[in-house]
From TrEMBL:
Biased composition (Low complexity): 332-341
PROSITE patterns xref list: ABC_TRANSPORTER_1, ABC_TRANSPORTER_2
Biased composition (Basic and acidic residues): 308-328
Signal peptide region: none
Positions of the ABC transporter domain: 5-227
Molecular function terms, GO-annotated: ATP binding; ATP hydrolysis activity
Name of the molecule in the record: ABC transporter
Pfam families with a match to the protein in the record: ABC_tran (PF00005)
Chain intervals for the UniProt region annotation (Disordered): 308-341
Domain of life: Archaea
Keyword annotations: ATP-binding, Nucleotide-binding, Transport
């Protein structure tokens, strides 16, 4: 599939600071690509390189087959993380101002409705809440009906209802063929919206794939967490009770139970069918617990696992296998079918 957005081995330094270190990605038409990573990983610099506002020191970037500085700007929508529009305009006037920069813009009122602010058109931008202001900013990227949309943390500061409005809007745009690259710290946002996700760390994309494929590869196992105020001896008894309950439900118990941090017992790889038996065993023996939760691995687990691996490698620690990775083994690409590389 032809790439609409492509970066190959991008490098960027600011003095002694390495912002990008061989970052590469390829996004086909109509895909939503989620870019995640810790603060300072290089996400904003990568977006700037792809939109022509930062010149990389090395490597190449193309959008719609052209250099980012040569592309027809009517075809792009860009929302910077630190976007600050004029505030002495109403929401409608602000969108009308940006619409006036293009040849065939969308109606500002239609854009206001799309971002859930149909009733706020006459409100001064400065009088809008922070979340409403951010939604107006999202709307400013849509007035030209772009083919490619770059959104740098688009829902920062937006309340849950407004966030879901923006999510639905992005889903509708992608369904209509718009290609979207968004950066986010919200793992639920990335998991819901992104067809593929890339984790950027230290300026390099260290893993890419569908959310499901990344979770299967790096997310770990399902787990049951039992919070208790029990003393250490009782905690041992609690662990034994959990193991027995798993055996009765024909769930493998070997290496699945581990004492957690402080007062939490973590049971990994537990069959959901065994949870009821675990609860019954705890109650029969009078072992008190203050909380019990069962969770499946998700994209947040992937993020934490890969970030932890990078930190261990940075500090010279061994990986899970007990061996250091070769210097060039830094990127894992998981295909859209969910197969691991």
């Amino acid at each position: 599939m032809t790439a609409v957005v492509e970066a190959t081995a991008l490098e960027k330094r600011y003095g002694e600071t390495v912002a990008l270190s061989g970052a590469s990605l390829s996004i086909p038409a109509g895909e939503v690509f989620g870019l995640i990573g810790p603060n300072g990983a290089g996400k904003t610099t990568l977006v700037r390189a792809l939109t022509g506002t930062t010149e990389p020191d090395a490597g190449t970037a193309t959008v719609l087959g052209e250099s980012p500085t040569a592309i027809d700007r009517d075809r792009l929508g860009v929302l910077p993380q630190d976007f600050s529009p004029p505030d002495r305009l109403t929401a409608r006037e602000l969108l009308a101002y940006y619409a006036g920069l293009y040849d065939n813009p969308r109606d500002p009122d239609a854009v206001l409705a799309a971002v859930g602010l149909a009733d706020a058109g006459d409100t001064w931008y400065e009088d809008l809440s922070g979340g409403q202001q951010r939604r107006v900013c999202v709307g400013s990227t849509l007035v030209n009906d772009p083919d490619v949309l770059f959104l740098d943390e688009p829902t920062t500061g937006i309340d849950p209802a407004g966030r879901r409005t923006v999510w639905r809007l992005i889903e509708e745009l992608a369904a209509g063929g718009t290609t979207v690259l968004l950066t986010t710290h919200n793992m639920a946002e990335a998991e819901r919206l992104a067809d593929r996700v890339g984790l950027l760390a230290d300026g390099s994309l260290i893993a890419q794939g569908t959310p499901d494929a990344l979770v299967a590869e790096y997310g770990g196992s399902s787990r049951l967490e039992i919070e208790t105020a029990a003393d250490p001896d009782t905690l041992v008894e609690l662990e034994y009770s959990v193991e027995r309950a798993q055996r009765r439900t024909h769930t493998a118990a070997d290496d699945t139970v581990s004492s957690g941090v402080e007062d939490t017992l973590v049971v990994r790889d537990i069959d959901p069918a065994a949870i009821g038996a675990v609860v019954d065993a705890l109650e029969r023996q009078g072992l008190e617990y203050t909380g019990l939760s069962w969770t499946e691995p998700d994209l947040e687990d992937v993020y934490l696992e890969l970030a932890d691996r990078m930190e261990r490698e940075r500090t010279g620690g061994a990986g899970e296998s007990g061996e250091k990775k070769p210097d060039d083994e830094t990127t894992t690409d998981l295909t859209q079918t969910g197969e691991t590389a």
